[in-house]
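2024-03-11 09:14:02 INFO queue: dequeued item ATP-dependent Clp protease proteolytic subunit, len=273
2024-03-11 09:14:02 INFO validating residues
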Amino acid sequence: MALSITPPSLRCSYARTDTTSRSRAADRPGYLRTGKRNVNIAFNKEVQKRLSWRSKGTATRARVTMMPVGVPSVLYENDFLDIWDVLNKERIVFIGDEIDEEISNKLVATLLYLDGLDSSTDLFFFINCHGGDVSSSLAIYDTMQFLKSSVVTRCIGYAYDIPAFILAAGKRGSRAALPHTRIILRSPVGEADGKVDDVLNETKELTKIRDHLYNELAKHTGQPVEKIFQDLTEGKGFNTQEAIEYGLIDRIARPRRLSNTIHQQEKTAPGLG
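2024-03-11 09:14:37 INFO prediction written
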């Protein structure tokens, strides 16, 4: 196959020799030998046939995979930034993974940094999480109480176990959840193993943690401690309306409606209304 380039237009074209054409004509499929474009059912079948191959006696279909999208970048103040960095700049922090020591340290560091930048504006905690380590979660809880900024909590999706406790610990009057959010509260779970003394010691420690969590939850919900002990012995699930009645949240977040007049527009909290 010879490649010729036409200098004036820099146009590339392929010129087949007679030998090349004769040697390959028999190998080409019918829809190519005719020289006519035939985009029909037969054409598609032939294409699909040639997209497959045999390996170890088994027919395997060729697969085309997409590259992962990854973390999107968005335009923010004339620059493209990671979406999570943009949300942090807007004082919005997400809990979206099971809470462990690493995630807890990152969240605590972010909260302390944002509070140092501006302690007069609320911080927003968005929760969509199914549990985590109690000690690591209590580090987040204590930081929330330590900050000068108030922490407004929002639940999207679900909050199971200790994240539900963090949800209830938000700024009173501003705790909210989306309409189809599910909230579940249960007793702490231990993983004691080994000698009897080790199991007994962990049981005593878990009992102290449970009693502390229930007393703190009573402060945030307004429920009697006895009722919380009774309800959470077997675990209790809440929809959004039940969570309001129990004191875990204050309202159901609804989509904000745009006003028709500029004078009626008010500055609202970022994210969910």
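2024-03-11 09:14:37 INFO annotate: The longest strand covers residues 151-160.
2024-03-11 09:14:38 INFO item closed
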